[in-house]
């Protein structure tokens, strides 16, 4: 049996490999606007439907980890994600085919992200568990950054179909890594397991629900930002001479990689200063930043790049602390069900966030309007501000 450090490293690497295709569509959105002639709302649907597929599958797949080994669920999810990425590479031709394939890709993520976290917590016990969770959760940010980078560079050189093909191959490698490195293990079972999708015991857990609802507000903002940041940066770049500036996908990658550090740092602050207090302060600061960020597009592009990286780092700083809060407040034997509801609410919001931004942009003047971008990001800030409220109301004893 591998040690805790090696186990954490294996699952983090597997997560990066299986997630290379997650933000390939948003990274290549300017290409799809030109090739498929999408409206902003249609683009928001395709970006968001991925997380709707995730939300459809995650209650079943994550709840199953209370009954069967999370390793088995993970391998099924990775296989589905690989098939969906390959299907997009060879068969996507427009709005409807992209929608269907991205739904299945989201279902694949539902079989890997939270089941991978469950596989980690089942095999890593003791005082180091919270830090292992922080590294695993933070590697989500690294995975998204590399997803932007891979899709942007491969798409630029070989075309967008090649980018999705690379994602499919990487996902297969992640599946093989988990199959080889993790030994089968029976999960801890609840004294009274109940029905598979019976979330009533989780709903009665007020502290867990506080973290779950705050996580939903966090993911709404996070996925809306990551789905639209490349297009926003392309708009900001249009105000200036484009020579010498980093490409929007490069900026998105840097923001995601920097966010890995801030996510781990947020978890460390939570361990020292109190989880609910730290999370509430970070979410409040992110809401304030969102209210002004979208209006920054006409500023010098260098400033827009710095603000994008800073805002992206700030919004992810509470991520590991939120997920760890849910895990640590779950009842024994119901960790899978608790994580299932955590993901269902979070990624359901992740579906709505990109779609809402697309709708706001269409209503307020489109992607060529600075006012429309300002209002779109402000709408994200209004949602994330609800997170501290949920923790305050439900987190009290």
Describe the fold and architecture.
- By secondary structure, the protein is an all-alpha fold.
- It has one domain (4-188, 198-395): Up-down Bundle (Growth Hormone, Chain: A), CATH 1.20.1250.20.
- It is 79% helix and 0% strand.
- It has 18 helices and no strands.
- The chain has helices at 4-18, 24-27, 29-36, 40-63, 70-91, 95-110, 113-123, 129-158, 160-181, 200-203, 206-237, 248-273, 275-293, 301-316, 319-329, 335-364, 370-384, 386-395.
- Helix 5 packs antiparallel against helix 9.
- It is globular.
- The protein starts with a helix and ends with a helix.
- The model has no long low-confidence stretch (mean pLDDT 88).
Instruction: Return the domain count.
Output: 1
Strand share of the residues? under 5%
Question: Which bin fits the share of residues in helices?
Answer: over 70%
Major sheet: none
Query: Structural class of the helices, strands and pairings?
Result: mainly alpha
Return the CATH topology.
Answer: Growth Hormone, Chain: A
Q: Secondary-structure element sequence? A: HHHHHHHHHHHHHHHHHH
Alpha-carbon distance between the two ends: 40 Å
The CATH class turns out to be Mainly Alpha
Shape, please? globular
Number of strands: 0
pLDDT below 50 for ≥5 consecutive residues: which ranges?
none
Classified in CATH, the superfamily is MFS general substrate transporter like domains
CATH architecture: Up-down Bundle
């Amino acid at each position: 049996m591998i040690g805790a450090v090696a186990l954490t490293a294996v699952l983090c690497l597997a997560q990066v490999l299986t997630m290379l295709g997650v933000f390939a569509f948003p990274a290549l959105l300017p290409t799809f606007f030109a090739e498929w002639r999408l409206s902003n709302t249609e683009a928001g649907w395709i970006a968001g439907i991925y997380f709707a597929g995730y939300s459809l599958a995650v209650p079943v797949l994550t709840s199953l980890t209370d009954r069967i080994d999370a390793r088995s669920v993970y391998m099924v999810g990775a296989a589905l994600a690989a098939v969906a990425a390959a299907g997009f590479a060879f068969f996507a031709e427009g709005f409807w085919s992209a929608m269907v394939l991205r739904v299945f890709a989201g279902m694949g993520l539902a079989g890997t992200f939270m089941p991978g976290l469950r596989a980690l917590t089942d095999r890593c016990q003791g005082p180091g568990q919270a830090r292992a969770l922080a590294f695993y959760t933070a590697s989500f940010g690294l995975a998204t950054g590399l997803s932007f980078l891979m899709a942007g560079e491969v798409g630029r050189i070989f075309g967008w179909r090649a980018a999705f093909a690379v994602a499919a191959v990487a996902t297969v490698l992640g599946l093989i890594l988990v199959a080889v490195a993790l030994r089968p293990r029976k999960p801890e079972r609840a004294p009274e397991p109940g029905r598979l999708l019976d979330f009533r015991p989780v709903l009665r857990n007020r502290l867990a629900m506080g973290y779950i609802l705050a996580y939903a507000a966090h993911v709404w903002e996070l996925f809306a930002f990551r789905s639209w940041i490349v297009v926003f940066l392309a708009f900001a770049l249009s105000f200036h001479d484009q020579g010498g500036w980093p490409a929007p996908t490069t900026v998105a990658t840097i923001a995601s990689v920097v966010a890995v550090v801030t996510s781990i740092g947020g978890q460390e602050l939570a361990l020292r200063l109190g989880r609910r207090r730290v999370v509430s302060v970070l979410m409040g600061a992110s809401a304030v930043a969102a209210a002004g960020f979208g209006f920054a597009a006409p500023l010098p592009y260098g400033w827009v790049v710095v603000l994008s990286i800073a805002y992206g780092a700030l919004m992810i700083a509470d991520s590991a602390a939120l997920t760890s809060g849910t895990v640590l407040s779950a009842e024994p034997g119901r960790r899978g069900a608790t994580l299932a509801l955590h993901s269902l609410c979070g990624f359901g919001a992740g579906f709505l966030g990109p779609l809402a931004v697309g709708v706001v942009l269409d209503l307020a003047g489109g992607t060529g309007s600075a006012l429309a971008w300002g209002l779109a990001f402000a709408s994200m800030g209004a949602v994330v501000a609800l997170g501290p409220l949920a923790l305050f109301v439900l987190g009290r004893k």
